[in-house]
Automatic annotation (TrEMBL):
Protein name: Soluble starch synthase II-1
Highest taxon of source: Eukaryota
Species of provenance: Oryza meyeriana var. granulata
Amino acid sequence: ISTSERRKISSIIEDSSIY
């Protein structure tokens, strides 16, 4: 998995407040 993908996923998680 690419770092950009991880950052994108992390951004989505934070935006969704699912973490």
